[in-house]
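Ligand: FE2/S2 (inorganic) cluster. Inputs:
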Amino acid sequence: MNEAARTALDATPESMQPGVPQADAGFLWDFWYPAMRSDEIYGKHLATAMLLEVPLVIGRTSEGKAFAMRDACPHRGIPLSYGHFDGKDLQCSYHGWEFDACSGQCVLIPSLTSHDKLKVECIAAGHYPCEERDGYVWVYMNAAGTQLPEQVPAAPELPKFSEKFRIARLDCELPSHIDHGIIGLMDPAHGPFVHQSWFWRSKKSIHEKSKQFEPIPNGFRMSKHSPWTNSLPYQLLKKMTGEAVTTTIDFVLPNMRFEGIHSGKLWFSSRATVTPGRRDLCRIDFVAAWNLALPVSIFRAFAKMFLRQDKETMIEQSEGLKQNPRLMLIDDADRPAKWYFALKQNLIEDRRTGVPVPHPMTGSVTLHWRS
Ligand code: FES
Ligand SMILES: [Fe+2]
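Predicted complex:
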């Protein structure tokens, strides 16, 4: 089991110490992860990304199809991103082997002569399914040495509720293990301390909350409820429609938090994903769409501030985590974090044994905390 998850669980009252080997980085394979924004691949440019400690070279063919290959030539390992891409095939910079970008299959080895028996089509560079959604390039990361499923599931998409909408995307890197990034994302108790602001809330606004949660496949849902209407944005929304504001928040493995806010015909939908680049580095990608009269620039300014507050906290936390302290998860404010660890462990167990492990939640449950 990875160090970060271990320390996170050491002092957990209901410990769920998963039995993953030490060398395991604590990643969940066989899922889609966002590698970069769609506008980072253009023309014949080759971009690079690191997902789950796998270096990737990413580009788009002249027909517009995004592709993702392992950024290492199968011949001698030089990154393929140093090579040349003609819009269809990627040529390695070292000995000029060429690979079809959409399949990874080798199509040419320039040094071969009529005396050689080597079949170029039997050689392939590492290659991953790649799709674009909502302005992101998604890569399906199957574990090394495993076969892709017969039917790769569809890449995640942000729910939208009308034809016309505005959309904004933000990201920020965190010097943290994925598990800390995720439990930070779903942690309700840090709000009044980390995200203080005049329009949102202050330390003094802390009050008791009761929220109902229910199990969903591979995750859990904060059931539909009316958000705390002392926050200015919710008050404005209610004024605009004259109707109640409701919000639903889902967490779904491996790394996604969806939030949907509705009031009459107006809606706001967001998704945050925490994607592991390395075991000590992850990235939050935050995308939001809405049909309210909220300019993208204003939304971006506020969202940027929230992300910066989280990032600064995670940088400070990573300083403390270097000393490998014992950590705690408490009830009820940290219960979502416990569900995350349990869901993750169940999934690993499920895949290892082929026997479905029951959901860690047996039904709806109400959690109480002050925030
Ligand atoms: S290292 Fe790529 S062709 Fe030799
Ligand atoms: Fe936060």
